[in-house]
Design a protein that fits this description.
The structure is a single chain. The chain has six helices and three strands; from the N terminus they run ααααβαββα. It is mainly alpha-helical and about 170 residues long. Strands 1-3-2 form a three-stranded antiparallel beta sheet, covered by helices on one side. The protein is elongated and about 70 Å long. The chain starts with a helix and ends in a 5-residue tail after the last helix.
C-alpha cells in the first residue's frame, strides 16, 4: 500500500466518522432510534459533510490579521452594550408613554461580507429590545427587522449600517 492509498483511506474514514458523529448528535437531539429518524439523520449528516467538503474546496477566504480583529473586540462589546442600553431606554419610554411610535418592518441592506459576519450582525441586532430580526437573507443581501419606530426607515437603515461599520466590521470583516 502506498502513502497515497493510505491517505485516501484515512480521508474516507474521516468522512465516515464525521457522518456517524453528526448522525449521532441528531439522534440524541430527537431522542429516537426509529428507522425513519436514523435515515433522516444519515441523509442530513452526509449532506452536511459533503457540503462542508465542497465549501472547503473553494478555498479559504483572504486572511484578516488576528491582531486587527482582536483590537476591535472592545469596541464591539462596548458598542453592543451601548446599543442595548439605548434600545432598552427607547423601549421603556415607548411602553410607559401615551404617545406611540410607529412599529413596522424595515429592510436593511447587508454589505458584502461572509456569512459569519451577517449572522453575528443579526445576533447583535436581535439582542436589543427594540428590534427583532425577522429574516436574514444573505443571498439577496438584506436583513428584515421589526422595529418599534419605523416612521423613518432611512434613519433606521443609517443607524444600523453605522453600527455595523463602526462596531462590528473590524472583528467580523
Amino acid at each position: 500500500m502506498t502513502g497515497r492509498d493510505d491517505g485516501e483511506k484515512r480521508s474516507r474514514m474521516n468522512l465516515v466518522l464525521r457522518v456517524v458523529a453528526l448522525a449521532a448528535i441528531y439522534l440524541l437531539v430527537v431522542t429516537s432510534l426509529h428507522p425513519g429518524d436514523v435515515l433522516v439523520a444519515v441523509v442530513l449528516a452526509v449532506a452536511l459533510v459533503l457540503g462542508g467538503r465542497r465549501i472547503r474546496s473553494l478555498g479559504p477566504p483572504p486572511p484578516v490579521p488576528l491582531g486587527r480583529r482582536l483590537a476591535g473586540v472592545p469596541a464591539l462589546l462596548g458598542g453592543t452594550f451601548v446599543d442595548v442600553v439605548r434600545s432598552t431606554w427607547t423601549t421603556a419610554r415607548w411602553c410607559l408613554s401615551a404617545r406611540r411610535a410607529t412599529p413596522g418592518l424595515v429592510t436593511i441592506p447587508i454589505p458584502p461580507c461572509p456569512p459569519t459576519s451577517a449572522a453575528a450582525w443579526g445576533i447583535r441586532v436581535g439582542i436589543t429590545p427594540d428590534t427583532v430580526v425577522v429574516d436574514l437573507d444573505e443571498e439577496r443581501g438584506r436583513m428584515l427587522l421589526h422595529v418599534i419606530d419605523a416612521a423613518d426607515p432611512d434613519v433606521v437603515r443609517a443607524e444600523q449600517l453605522d453600527s455595523y461599520e463602526r462596531r462590528q466590521r473590524r472583528v467580523f470583516p
